Amino acid sequence: MKNEREANSQIDLKKFSWIKQHAPCFRIQPDHVDIIYEPAEFYDTLKDQVSRAKDRIVLSSLYIGTGPKEVGLIDEIEKALKSNDRLKVTILTDFTRGTRGDQNTCTLVQKLKNYNNVTICMYHSPDLRGILKKILPQKFNEVVGLSHMKICVFDDNLIMTGANLSADYFTNRQDRYFHLTHCKQLANFLSGIVQVVCEFSFHLNKNGLLYFHKETEDFEKEIDFHPFDDNIDPSGENFRTKFHRSMAELVEKFKNEPTSSQNDQKTTVEIYPLIQMFPINIDVDNRVTHQLITDASESATIHITSGYFNLTPDFEDAVLQSTSTFSILTASPEVNGFFGARGVLGAIPDAYTLIEKQFFEKLDNESKIEIFEYFRKDWTYHAKGMWFYFENKLYPSLTLIGSPNYGFRSVFRDLEVELAILTDDLSLQMKLHRERLNLYKKSTKVSDETFQRPSRRIPLWVKFVTKYIRKFF
């Protein structure tokens, strides 16, 4: 039986060597990949890794919350800084989310600036400028674009996730979390991505003030690029060009390093970091993911999950026209993060229901596509990613894990990074399979009856506005 399973796990990794045209390849050992299943375990692992870090801590998140758990995480970082002069800490969040309200990410992390070797940055989208920046209120300005990357590096270990660093993501908001160890080159590359974004972000100084690119106001007078100041950089063209060039140089550097693609020829795990930063003309994750779907054979099964199901037309067409079998897992309205919100935001679950219904209506009885909805009482659902089961295999040999949701925002507006992890190692494939099943076991299959329930009635005004606003979420 074991030999049968091992034979069923075999896949030719060389079939995916084309990805090297788009991203560097890193090889690690299968037993250096661990999967975290629950938010509480994610939080505990974060604190444990912080306490063990000797040389570097790099955290990238949309924002960091301000509750007791987040304070506990920052306190752990401060404790590590106190006991280790050589420890370097870099924190990157989004400007619009990180500065919202009186108590925010800036006020939480400011005390870390009392220590040497601490860099705290806030990315501001070049698309939020001019009249939009002036008229959009804080709660809505993030729809224009933001830094959505979720990367946590601790020395030569890392956690790749779709979760933000906030209390609900540590308690009852389901996501995915991969803990990779002994992966120095991959950690260096992901840290490099964060460092490049920091070069084009606002920096927090010891006084709690934010200055673009560096921590002093004087430096702002010397630069010719800026995300939104037309006096320095009309239309932001210099910002986009220089940002693109710096990120492209980082990618090329690691693509050309032998250690990134030839670390150990005996390993059976290959990892490709896929970057998506359309505002600066980087379209890697979108193209690679699209090709993985279109290249999949009739005997393949592809599982896609997103808490916010809103595929772009290209992705939707690729799925609908594919001969592969598809299973899509998304949030039921009750576990959508906006369920029960006040005002306009409270209608967002209805908008996602409408988008899901419109997609479902494109399926026929012969379709090889099924939709499932996740439900867990008193929880919300935020997981995203894909699992590829090739050629009738029992277990997946490829997964995508990271921040993209495969919708309009992910492709066109935000900064995103995910890992394509390929393996022919049976034990790791079984881990990937178990992770997927763990999410699907809390779901039910969508049918015609689903959308006939009174709770799924969509207000007329939501039907009208969704077609105009779906490109913003």
TrEMBL record:
Please list the GO biological process terms of this entry. cardiolipin biosynthetic process
Residue intervals of the PLD phosphodiesterase domain = 143-169, 377-410
Would you say which domain of life the source belongs to? Eukaryota
What's a Gene Ontology MF term here?
A: CDP-diacylglycerol-glycerol-3-phosphate 3-phosphatidyltransferase activity
Q: What class of enzyme is it?
A: transferase
Q: Which residues form a coiled coil?
A: none
Kindly indicate whether the keyword Transcription regulation belongs to this entry. no
Q: What is its main location?
A: mitochondrion
**Compartments it resides in:** Mitochondrion
Q: What is this protein called?
A: CDP-diacylglycerol--glycerol-3-phosphate 3-phosphatidyltransferase
| The organism of origin for this protein | Dimorphilus gyrociliatus
